[in-house]
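Translate structure to sequence.
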């Protein structure tokens, strides 16, 4: 995954700067302060601070020597058994520089490691515990074999809440001289979904266009339809005006360049704002899941979305 220039620029240097993961940071900080810690497994969605916290751990443990004592590998690029047998093992078997008795190996995207590589890794984790600690980062901990999970302290990261996202927005806006409206802040949170990396990428794109960032600019740079426009199409369908709903949907996809998957996900979020009984909404959400599955399997997205709008129309007419 590529990081923006801003992501590197605003990456925290101390534990107090890490946002949105207070409970995890408090426990990790205790490990570092004692100068001893177990192998760690960080699991959670993208852009919530797993890599950042790992680098903060390295900097706090080793100070200026953190680069010499830390090996960072992206397992999605190098995920074969040879990487574990050669790169990891060679680094793990040598002693660290400085007062800390162990080195640090950070394996990003470790759920992309092959099963053979994971089997080799568990033996390496056992044999070189005295000279090395591992931090494994992944999006799905279920893809990490049980023997490795049992050797690690597992920490599950969560998307950043709205209040923490606003703090990040305000910090960047102040340092970069940006003016951001309240509606734009809400739009940024809605678009990024708690992913701080995505937030900074969108803000960087907006800042290139204009230092005054409003809601319109955010949605256009994020290539996401405005929630109100998606809701309008759904309301037209629920009101029985299928032709108008179909036209609005087509305009949405053409104006914003959205894929069918993007549209159905936005629709699912807006369904709960329709003036329908809860049972009808549940039927629509169930249908959303079916349509999304068909698209993933290769069905024509325009036909599937029209089919969904037709179903919304039928459900709306039954409600009347």
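Result:
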């Amino acid at each position: 995954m590529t990081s923006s220039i801003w992501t590197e620029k605003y990456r925290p240097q101390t534990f107090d700067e890490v946002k949105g993961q207070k409970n995890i940071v408090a426990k990790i900080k205790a490990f570092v302060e004692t100068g001893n810690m177990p192998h760690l497994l960080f699991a959670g969605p993208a852009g919530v601070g797993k890599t950042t916290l790992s680098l903060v751990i390295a900097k706090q443990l080793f100070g200026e020597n953190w680069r010499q004592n830390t090996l960072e590998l992206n397992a999605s690029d190098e995920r074969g058994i040879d990487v574990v047998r050669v790169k990891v093992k060679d680094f793990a078997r040598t002693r660290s520089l400085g007062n800390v008795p162990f080195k640090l190996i950070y394996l990003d995207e470790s759920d992309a490691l092959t099963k053979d590589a994971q089997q080799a890794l568990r033996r390496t984790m056992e044999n070189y515990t005295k000279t090395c600690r591992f931090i494994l980062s992944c999006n799905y901990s279920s893809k990490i074999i049980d023997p490795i999970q049992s050797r690690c302290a597992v920490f599950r990261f969560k998307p950043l809440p709205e209040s923490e996202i606003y703090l990040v927005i305000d910090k960047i806006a102040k340092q970069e001289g940006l003016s951001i409206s309240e509606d734009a802040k809400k739009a940024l949170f809605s678009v990024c979904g708690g992913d701080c990396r995505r937030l900074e990428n969108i803000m960087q794109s907006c800042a290139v266009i204009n230092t005054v960032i409003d809601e319109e600019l955010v949605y256009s740079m994020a290539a996401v339809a405005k929630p109100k426009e998606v809701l309008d199409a759904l309301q037209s369908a629920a009101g029985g005006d299928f032709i108008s709903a179909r036209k609005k949907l087509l305009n949405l996809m053409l104006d914003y360049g959205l894929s069918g998957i993007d549209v159905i996900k936005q629709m699912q979020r807006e369904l709960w704002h329709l003036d329908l009984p809860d049972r009808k909404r549940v039927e629509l959400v169930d249908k959303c899941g079916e349509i999304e599955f068909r698209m993933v399997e290769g069905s024509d997205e325009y036909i599937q979305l029209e089919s969904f709008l037709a179903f919304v129309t039928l459900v709306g007419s039954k409600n009347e």
